[in-house]
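> forwarded from #structure-qc
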């Protein structure tokens, strides 16, 4: 079978809310003719918070709602932004791949699409990401996609973390170091 490329599906607030409800109820979820694989949606505590923040008007849905990583008719992961760019133009990406679909290059293929979405917005000057120190696969995905390790810190919930930075090459924004 030929390789099917990863597509990023942008969701509406009602679509994201329906997925959260289905996942919470333990029933199959789907959106835009794509069935979500088990474990492809972000943890409910995060997804519910992102939907709540959009409904509260904290930020545009583009910056908060997860995008589904679809391969053919299956949602194999999700990712997006952890909020709109801050005052310096920094935006953080995050991503997750369903356990049954890991080690297939999905995140490596999806991350540049997230980066392109961010770079298309004039307010973005820097793109950052985090990974747990022990997550070699995620570190490889970020390195492969041009991110550089910018330091480590200890998160109160996740433990030791790497901090990654990608400074987009854009003619309308001079490069800055962080």
């Amino acid at each position: 079978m030929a390789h099917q490329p990863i597509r990023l599906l942008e969701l509406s607030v009602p679509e994201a809310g329906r997925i959260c409800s289905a996942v919470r109820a333990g029933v199959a979820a789907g959106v835009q003719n794509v069935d979500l694989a088990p474990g492809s949606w972000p943890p409910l505590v995060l997804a519910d918070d992102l939907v709540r923040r959009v409904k509260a008007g904290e930020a545009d849905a583009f910056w908060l709602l997860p995008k589904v990583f679809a391969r053919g008719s299956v949602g194999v992961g999700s990712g997006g932004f952890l909020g709109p760019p801050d005052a310096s133009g920094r935006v953080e990406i995050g991503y997750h791949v369903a356990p049954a679909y890991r080690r297939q290059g999905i995140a490596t293929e999806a991350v540049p699409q997230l980066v392109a979405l961010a770079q298309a917005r004039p307010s973005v000057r820097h793109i950052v990401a985090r990974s747990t120190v022990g997550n070699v696969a995620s570190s490889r995905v970020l390195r492969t996609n041009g991110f550089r390790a910018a330091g480590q810190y200890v998160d109160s919930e996740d433990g030791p973390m790497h901090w990654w930075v990608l400074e987009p090459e854009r003619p309308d924004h001079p490069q800055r170091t962080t």
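QC bot note: The longest strand covers residues 74-81. The two ends are 44 Å apart (CA to CA).
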